[in-house]
Amino acid sequence: MGGAVSAGEDNDELIDNLKEAQYIRSDLVEHAFRAIDRADYYLEEFRDSAYKDLAWRHGNIHLSAPCIYSEVMEALDLQPGLSFLNLGSGTGYLSTMVGLIL
Fold this sequence. Notes:
The chain is mainly alpha-helical. The protein is 37% helix and 6% strand. The chain has 4 helices and 2 strands. It has a two-stranded antiparallel sheet with strand order 1-2. The protein is globular, with a radius of gyration of 13 Å. InterPro entries: PCMT, SAM-dependent_MTases_sf. Belongs to the methyltransferase superfamily. L-isoaspartyl/D-aspartyl protein methyltransferase family. This is Protein-L-isoaspartate (D-aspartate) O-methyltransferase domain containing 2.
């Protein structure tokens, strides 16, 4: 997984490609992805890679591929009012999107 789905120019194009590939299937997950710009979770000098469907690591900073996060969020069947605990939350990108849904 990752890499083949998207090399978007911006966050919306990344999400459009994830939807087209059916990684993002629900409106709740789509809205969370669109509300949070993935580039905001990158170091400034690496933001040119933010909209690729690839994992990224620099030292202790790590982001999984967007397709992985979308699969996780869809599989959890997230709904307002539920709880979520993300151990080893890294940059907080996934936790922020999940928090918007909950």
